[in-house]
Amino acid sequence: MDEEILQDFLVEAGELYENLNEQLVELERDPHNADLLNAIFRGFHTIKGGAGFIGVTPLVELCHRAENLFDKIRNGEREYAGGNVDVVLQAYDVIGRMIQALQAGERELEAADASLLAELDAAVKGEMGSSVEMDAPVEVVTAPVIKLALPEGVDPDGEISDEEFEALLNQRDMLAMAGQETAPTEAPASPFVAGLDPDGEITDEEFEAMLAGLQSGKSAQEAALDAAKAVGVLADPKPAAAVVASPVMAEPVKPVAPAAKPAAKPAVVAKAGEEAESTVRVDTKRLDEIMNLVGELVLVRNRLLNLRTLLQNEEVSAVVANLDHVTMDLQASVMKTRMQPVKKVFSRFPRVVRDLARKLGKEIELELEGEDTDLDKNLVEALADPLVHLVRNAVDHGVEDPQTRESQGKSRVGKLILSAQQEGDHILLTITDDGKGMNADFLRQKAIEKGLIDEMTAAQLDDKSAFELILLPGFSTKTEISDVSGRGVGMDVVKSTINKLNGSIDIHSVLGEGTIFNIRVPLTLAILPTLMVGVGAFNYAIPLTAVQEIFDYDASQSNRIDGRMMVRLRSRSIPLYFMRDWLSSHTSHEPLDHAKVVIVNIGTVMVGLIVDHVRGQEEVVIKPLGAKLQGVQGYAGATITGDGRIALILDLPGMMNRF
Q1: For the chain, how far is it from start to end, CA to CA, in angstroms?
Q2: Same domain for 288 and 155?
Q3: What range does the domain containing 317 cover?
């Protein structure tokens, strides 16, 4: 198969697959939504068409059966309920695995399990126990059988493109609406006339002429006559039975209102085509290269800003100021090209919550907010696992079962809210549930039982610190290990991943009311806002997201407890660390008179770092360390400062492991 065509198919199929995930779960809540049914039908059809074009037969066979089932469902012959839902979701999962296999380089896929294909066939035939019940007689509404003329050159037994499919849908809707003008007991007047073969094909010109006539308010017969005149094929007009009312139906069917889909005007179609041509797919590696070059430009900009201050030349200052403005705009534009909506992550959670709640016997409603919030593509990928852990944790530990909720005066259905919003140069992700909340005393006791903390430490923890115990490795409140939870590794993964992203996690909980997890991460990982500090003769960069506050060091305000220096800050004891002990070659442990204390958050722990100088804020571009320095704890990379010197970027979690 052609590799370029395959990659185009994988991009399109991936987008359709993600959309189907959300649409299938939504359809379970609203099984008669005509728009959803049509969208899902088209999704399976489009994947099937692309797979058939590149010759992936197993994917074609599976999508074809799913497409057949949804054709029955949207026509009212079957219902999206019970066994039909289960078999469709199974097919959806297998389709996802096939797409992933193609992305991984496999070119010969195994056929779907024969039992799954058989179940899909049974669902199409109404043998899954979820088809429309016909015990009571149903009034039969005589519906016209509409023959659609395929565009010229289209094989009636082969595949059609999306544009051809949409054209047929429009044609069907127009003819159906035209047929409604005739009394149900009479056969609708045919819109075809002599010269327009009812059993043959019509040209695009004939179809456009008919469409224009219908849009102008003319009847179907008048529109067809005008079309025939326009293309010069009008002979003696005589009706031809191309649209026939079916007097007898094979089986009674519940009437279903046709999906209201307005016919597209030619001008609108042309505009849509122009917009499609104005976009281009670019390899993400190229975007990374461009971002790297912009990063270099930012470093040069910082250097020039520093020189402008030294030169004190008005002309140079004006040029540098203009360069600074252009660089900022360019940086913002390139960052936007790397941005993706957080919906790319959120779209998987309706299915996750649905399956897990069903497995645990719970009823949970998931709300997604701020899905259009954009953030760096690397962050989108990195946040997937932490959010999955948090959502599963909320479903398993947070929301109670329906009986318990009712006994407490709550609604049977628990609510889980997943939201995203931008706050300055950060993204705030929030996971909120209205479940049982967390018991701080219970968490302290569990941590003592597992040997994670001693009783004295537990007694000193306030409730907020007790909530953060769930982030410790090995901590779990479950007494039995299951495939959902109990091993004490999920929340530890969340903490370590968020730390690597220079983010922070905050927990709020009220017993009996629910829990809120707030995650803050930077918009991008390519350019990092930092606080530049001086220790000895060198400068170091501390990620600004971790910095809470800065104040002058005063030895008289610090105390030594259990051999560790501590400072009291608003009724909270915070450990102090002298950065010169580790970062500087100076042997003196006494800080300078003008030393500063930088309070930082490292994960869920707040500490004070004593530095010699605070230089100020600066945006830096992270450069990886050389091969010989890879793996050294405490350093995240390096950068070039505005004065042309090299500064190391500190990795605070790694640095704390060295203290």
Answers
A1: 56
A2: no
A3: 284-338
CA distances, 545 to each of 341, 620, 648 (Å): 22, 13, 17
Whether 203 and 221 map to the same domain: the answer is yes
Beta-bridge partner residues of 283 = none
67 assigned to active site: yes
Q: Please count the structural domains in the chain.
A: 4
Q: 351 and 492: one domain?
A: yes
Q: CA of 642: how far to CAs of 306, 310, 474, in Å?
A: 6, 12, 44
**Catalytic site residue from 21, 22, 67, 389:** 67
Same domain, 579 and 505: no
Which residues are bridge partners to 550 per DSSP? 598
State yes or no: is 45 an active-site residue. Answer: yes
Whether the CB-CB separation of 436 and 398 falls below 8 Å is answered with yes
Structure tokens at 227: 């079309």
pLDDT > 90? residue 348: no
Beta bridge partners of residue 552, listed in sequence order: 596
Say whether pLDDT at 246 is over 50. Answer: no
389 is catalytic: no
pLDDT in tens, 80-120: 888 888 888 889 999 989 988 888 888 788 888 888 888 88
Of the residues 84, 302, 393, 601, only one is catalytic, namely: 393
Among 21, 45, 397, 502, the active-site one is 45
pLDDT-derived band at 277 (thresholds 50, 70, 90) equals low
Residues 385 and 288 both lie in one domain: no
* Alpha-carbon gap, residue 520 to 430, rounded angstroms: 9
